[in-house]
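Quick look at the format.
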Amino acid sequence: MIKATRGFSLIELMVTLVVLAVLVSMAMPMLDVLDKRRVIGAAEAVYSEFQFAKSEAIKQSRDIRVEVIDGNEWCVGVTDKDSCICTTTNPQDNNACTVAVYDVAEDEAIDVLRTVRAEEHTGVSVLDDTGFPVEFDSLRGMLNGVGNTVELQSEDGVRLDVVVSRMGRIRLCGQNEPVGGYPQCD
């Protein structure tokens, strides 16, 4: 009678560990790419809101503001009012970050909610909101005041800045290195 053995031999265990180590080492660069993509996605969304604010200021011939709240629960909001709270999600709320946009189908201006929030971009935080809100003027889309920067960072330290110059130029750049095709900040 042959006795059945149970368990793994040392050789089988070692081969399994080597295969697992190879798979993990292959997956690590992919995690870095995902981390960069999170920051790039958030920065491009913030960049888009700044571009919208600038173009609407010129198009509507009135000043448009961009509000920023920093931290892990960050948000960015665009408004044509004196102020707004970008965490507000109901466009009918008086504190919501809305911009009156002309609706051709309705033949009237409607308030459109314009925000980007942390919950839409997990794993990304805004480091500093000093100097916000900023306001684009209605004549040339320049800032009323000095330029400013929104600093976005991933959990692993990948950082991408949205820089707005006094002249109204909006650009993306990597703080410590080029990130995803965007140059390093100068």
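Next, a different chain entirely:
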Amino acid sequence: MTVTVFSGRGLTKTYRSGEVEVHALRGADIDLYEGEIAVLLGPSGSGKSTLLNILGGLDRATTGTVRFRDHDLTNASERELTQYRREHVGFVFQFYNLIPSLTARENVALVTEISSNPMDPEKALGLVGLAHRLDHFPSQLSGGEQQRVAIARAIAKRPDVLLCDEPTGALDSKIGVLVLEALDHVNQTLGTTTAIITHNAAIQSMAHRVFNFGDGRIISTHANETRQNPSEINW
């Protein structure tokens, strides 16, 4: 049975800059399912990041409703959203946001120290292929390795969902594949529902489902009958 993790209906987001209104979302309906990899595909400014931020509790919709399982995020207080993010959501961004003075192990441990049911930092780093780089500082790691540390940090609290905003955007294709392989491995090993924002159409081949964005709307959705391994992606 398909279990719905996120359900969003009629989601809009309007930003105001002086007298100018910017419509970042113009009525998006979306369901994300337990254990799937969903790719949110579209050009810059099409509403992908805005929707991801709403799902992650980092932002609120102007109108519409959004639920995470039995949690109503639409009317949640700031305290409730903070608790929701802490307990249920892992974030991976384009830029790694690692602390330069801490090793890979220590960067991951920052999250495990405030989580209720964390995995060991060593295990999290092992899941992304960095068991041999535990005591290296960010300056001693490649861009792809730093991004995999960021993924390990995100999964170390055992989140229900992993929300990734352009995780390969600052990487070349060879290194980007390693990051996508790490995300795919985490999905298969832990069953973590994973949403990946990208403007790179090639990445959609690794998804269970693809949402195509344009002008603040989801303009089409399709399922992949045969998913590709990230290493098979033709960039």
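The chain has a mean pLDDT of 93.

See the schema section for token definitions.
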